[in-house]
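target protein:
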Amino acid sequence: MRAPFPLLLSLLLAACGGLPGWETDRVAEAIPGFTAGCAATPDPGPLAAACAEAARLPPGDEAAARAFLARHFEPVPAGEGLITGYYEPVLRVSPVPAPGFTAPLLALSPGAPDLNRASLEAAVAAGEWPGAVLAWADPVDAFFLQIQGSGRVLFPDGTARRLGYAGKNGHPYVPIGRLLIERGAMTREGVSMQSIRAWLRAAPPEEARALMDANPSWVFFRWRDDLPLEGGPAGTLGAPLPPGRAVAVDRTHIPLGSPVWIATRDPLSGRRLERLVIALDTGGAIRGPARADLFWGWGDAAGEAAGRMRETGRVWVMQPRS
């Protein structure tokens, strides 16, 4: 005999109840990110039934969201791994080179040679780069904008625009924080986006440039005026990233669009951070089954949390039930 639906739902909810923070997280906050991911996916495959129902859920209804998750998904442990953070920086730029604005933000140029960072900068300085320069920024700001992959820029006349990821130069990403540790300039515990920024600001310009050039990877951008500034940037899936509810993952282990549960610590308060997030993005340094990069939002406050987040955490993939 088939179990009555309320009993079956209770059993399914019990399976999710083993997730740390299941009873306290406001899981309904993650549903809009899930539906946005569904809308950005032409063929959601195993997520099709969940996508159809999610679109009909009452906004903010915790009970309905929990029942939906329990019916459609089963939490499967992915293991323990590194949880980091990223954000969308806001930086001042100039339309032309100017004092303090000497680093080019480049558009992707089809057919251009795959130069490393130092060679590419030299080509731009010599007027030999065939592509477009979208804007000019402070060198340290430009370097970290490339690490984040997208951002908002403010021109001197007050115009605000959004830059999105357009491609890479094909060279491997080298974390300069690791180089500072190897050189004895920092301890592993002391490395953060903030401490690296401070080191680059304090170092002689040639030394700072040499360290940044030790990372040969370069990210190209494109204007994303199609995305309203009130929302987040677009992730790899094409859906906007909701602050605090989106993660970048290794898509070879976690399918994009999947709900994911993370259990880690808040980098500023040290309190437990246990919540439902959606895999909407990828990243060059995000590798492994339990590796996640949490999107914190945009601006200085988001940058403070994202830059300090380097925590061990546990990850569960919410796999579709058959």
